[in-house]
Specification:
The protein is built from seven helices and no strands. α1 packs across α3 and α4 runs parallel beside α6. The chain starts with a helix and ends with a helix. It is 86% helix and 0% strand.
Length: 225
Amino acid sequence: MKMNQNFSTVAQRSPSELATNKVLRNTYMLLSMTLLFSGVTAMISMALSMPPMTYLISVIGAMVIAMFVLPKFANSPAGIGIVFLVTGMLGFGLGPILTMYASLPNGGNIITLSLGGTGVIFLSLSAYALTTRKNFSFLGGFLMVGFLLVLMAAIVNIFLAIPAMSLVISAVVIMIMSGFILYDTSRIIHGGETNYVLATIGLYMTIFNIFISLLQILGIMGGDD
C-alpha cells in the first residue's frame, strides 16, 4: 500500500516537473539566441555609426513594445518574433554606447570586463537558484520598490550629472538586477512563471541592465587610466 502511494505521488508530480523543465529549457535556449541577436544588431549599429540618441529611442521603443504588445502575443508564435524585435532594438541602441566606451582609454578592456562580469553574475546566481531550489518570491515587493527608487534617483541625476551619484546608482542597479535573477529563476522553478517568452524577456532585461551598469562603473573608475 505504501509503495503504491509513493508511486502515485511521483506520478502526480511528474507532469508538473516536466512542464517546469520544459519552461526552463525553452527560456535559456531563447535567451541565448536573443543575446546573440542583440550582439549582431549592436555591431550593425556600431558599423553604421549611429548617433547617441539612438540608445534612448531604442530603449523607450523596446520598453513600450515589451510592456504593452508582448503580453498580448506571449502565448502565440508571434510572441517569439516580438521578443527578437525587442532585444534586437535594445542591441541596436547599445551600439552608440559601445562606440563611446571603445573610444576611451582602455575602452576595449572596459567592454570586455563588463561582458565577463555580467556573465559571471548571471550564471552564478542562476546556478545558485537552480541548485538550491530556494523560493525567492519574498523578494518581489522589495525589488520593485528598490527599482522605482533607483529609477527616480537616475532621473534626478540626469539634471545633476554627479559622477559619484552615477556610480552609486549603477552599483544599486546591479544589486537589484541580481535579486531579480534569483526572483525570476525561482518563479520558473516553482511554477510562478509558466510562459517562457515572458520569462526570457524578464531575464534579458536583468542582463541588459547589469551590463550597462558595469560599463558605467568601469568607465568612471577606469576611463581615464
